[in-house]
Task: structure prediction
Amino acid sequence: MKRSLKLSAGIVATLGLGLAVAAAMGQPFGMEHGPMAGMDHAAAAGGPGSMAGPTAMLTKQDAGSAADMNLVHDLLLNNTKIKRSVTKLPDGIRTVTESDDPQVAQALKAHVASMSQRLQDGREFNIFSNTLPVLFDNRDKIVSKVETTEKGTVVTRTSTDAKVVAALQGHAAEVTELVQDGMVAMRRGMMTRMAMGPRGPAAGVGPGFGPGNRPPAMSDHTH
Result:
């Protein structure tokens, strides 16, 4: 049985910071030692945010950032248990993301619900995605329908704005790559952000910059 929710959904892209972060990714997100600890100390000294672990690499932080990051971490570690299909619509995207594993399926539902609420509230959750800022800035132009199934979610998102449609489809590709490659894709994305400066992969490019125009360090994927 499917339960329809009229929600604006955005699924997030994730992290990996050079060789130091690649090593840190082997640790649970809540640990406060290792290479990530330096970022936390910097944040405590007046940097952007003060949460432990990889939350320090978010472009923005709030009280729910750590919980959402832990959820993303769990999904990436279980990426091989996730099945995903994507249909491009003339005005947006339709995605089906499910798992035969009950715990992973529940995590998928929780993640989509949380990201949907964030998009509605305008509380950006982003590490390296160049499409998420466009979606959050134009959230009032997105019509979304989220259906929960026994094994996950079905998300349909549309817009009458061509720029937003391109961002919806580009973000779906980003999430698919994360589903396909897990932590490897996460590290690849963050390394691209570092290579392009503090503004991330969107620096110096227009809002239409998408998966087809990425630098060689980043590959294609979907949500």
In short: The chain has one domain: 3-16+64-213. The helical segments are 18-24, 35-44, 65-77, 102-121, 132-137, 162-181, 183-195. The first strand starts at residue 3 and ends at 5.
